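Q: I'm a student working through a structural biology exercise. My instructor gave each of us a protein and asked us to get a predicted structure, then write a short paragraph describing it. Mine is methionine--tRNA ligase. I'm not confident about reading structure output yet, so if you can add a plain explanation after the tokens, that would really help. Here is the sequence I was given:
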Amino acid sequence: MNTASRLLQQHAGSCALRQPIRSWRDLPRKRAASPGHRTCARRKTCTSAAAGNQASGEHSGQKPYVVTTPLYYVNAAPHMGSAYSTIATDVAARFHRLKKEQPVVFITGTDEHGEKIAAAAEAKQVSPQDHCDTVAAEFKDLWEKFDISTDSFVRTTQPSHERLVQALLQRIYDKGDIYKAAYEGHYCVGCEKYMDEEEMGPNHTCPTHRTECKLRQEENYFFKLSKYQQQLEQLLQDQPDFVQPAPRRNEVLGWIKSGAKDFSISRSKVEWGIRIPWDPSQTIYVWIDALHGYMSALLDDNQDVSLHTLDRITEAGWPADVHVIGKDILRFHAVMWPALLMSAELPLPGKVFAHGFLTKDGHKMGKSLGNVLDPNVLVDAYGSDAVRFFFLKEVTFGSDGDFSEERFQNIVNANLANDIGNLLNRSLNLLHKFCDGEYPVDSSDAPESAVLRELATRQAEAAVQAYERWDFSGAAEAVLAISGRGNGYMEEQAPWGTLKKGNDEQKAQGRQVLADVLEALRIVALLISPITPRLALAMYTQLGFSEEHFKQLSLADVAWGGLKEGHALSKPVPVFKRIDQEFVTEPAAAVAGKR
Ligand SMILES: Nc1ncnc2c1ncn2[C@@H]1O[C@H](COP(=O)(O)OP(=O)(O)OP(=O)(O)O)[C@@H](O)[C@H]1O
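A: Happy to help. First, here is the predicted structure for methionine--tRNA ligase. I'll explain a few features afterward.
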């Protein structure tokens, strides 16, 4: 055992008693105090239905559902692609909170070391740490604007993270899975990685960053990935869902079968990084450093970390259930990360979901290329719900999608302002005019075969199933089918006529139509709440419920029968303002939509 290991072990013995590992059993208290949560959207606009599930302590003793976004590289400000991953992960987190099966821990953060960061800082003539502080704050601010319900925002420059990475690598080194060797290869600074021949375009160009990958030679430490080839193959056979969607799994299996090559985990010439614990002349390769962030996000910022901590990492909530990533970083998450964990004998994440790219003119939007759509411009002009809704409904999760502002405005107006917002406004107006603003019957009195009850029940099931399989577009479509039918039903039944001029029986029918439409809209609000949390809260408020009530909702509440006779509904105020303004982005790709 080398000195560093010995020190780590001694440290383990002394600090374990003094400072127990943060346990997910402490989450309610920790959550309120965590730095990520201090800046999270929930503090300001707590629009998460069922956001209170952790605070209530109702899940004590259960492992949390842990879901992560990539840790974004702070080489430049966030763009719509970064926001896309984060919004999608937020939807998954919100949906799981609604299920109330487990507490949920939603992790995001920033990846802050490496050559590209040092270069970006130098270009601005600031220190790397100052640069990271500035850009990390931009990410946090953006997540707040987008109502991202983060539980933990991890930064890879925080002390607990640095200690955890060192402890974990030391364990792998002590096991004999790391060795030193000379390396020569073509390096892409944009990707911060050596590229295989088959990954590069003509003249050794990186297809993503469109720059030449320069030939480099250095002496590095290597991880014996090859030793884990069989175990990795077995993982993908035993857990076919480990990588989703299916084409990505096949891609990963192809990589593994074609030979899992040992890879370099250190850099000899990069100063801005975490030192290799047994050889401080080298720094840890930024990608290896960043992957550990998913684990250190579960620790307190300044927590002491030791080998002992690693042994008890499950008490902090590890493993993650799902890593949501873009398809560009699949190899790191689906091959390298599991292999490192296998070597360290720690539990593997449950799943890696790799979504597609938002493209501009058919090319991946990216910070390095600068061909990005500024999410601040969109969210400032149109609000969080509109942007969240458009990208989740219009881009099939897992596929690529382009943006067009014209299509954005059309879709959002048609679906959110007209189909949902107008229907609620019209029916509430009628309710105030003809029923004194009181819900006229018990919604559960409608027979199960009643048009809207039958449809809403069926579509709710379809929406829940779609969320479960990460088909956010399908979930949105299933919900819109309810509001769409609600509009049709209003037109067919025309309750305004019968309520005004009908006999008693016709008036009762008119009231029943309004009651059914409003109950259907309540279900719409709850089902769409993971995607458009503000709109959902506004709808619930209009339906006469408090924010507290909204926060306590669970999936069980999608069952027909929530609105009761005599319940007072609020005066109608538009819940979603129609967009009627000039475009705020440059003319972008002409056609949006699914591919
Ligand atoms: N165009 C995009 N579409 C969808 N997601 C994206 C896009 N660009 C980045 N992301 C998300 O961000 C992750 C990569 O984060 P990173 O900070 O490296 O961003 P980047 O813009 O791709 O950086 P760079 O252009 O410097 O390579 C992706 O895996 C994905 O989750």
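A: Here are two points you could use in your paragraph. Residues 70, 72-73, 75, 79, 81-82, 84-85, 190, 325-326, 328-329, 357-358, 364-369 surround adenosine-5'-triphosphate (CB under 6 Å). Confidence is low (pLDDT under 50) at residues 1-48, 50-57, 587-595. It's a good idea to check both against the output above yourself.
Q: Great, thank you!
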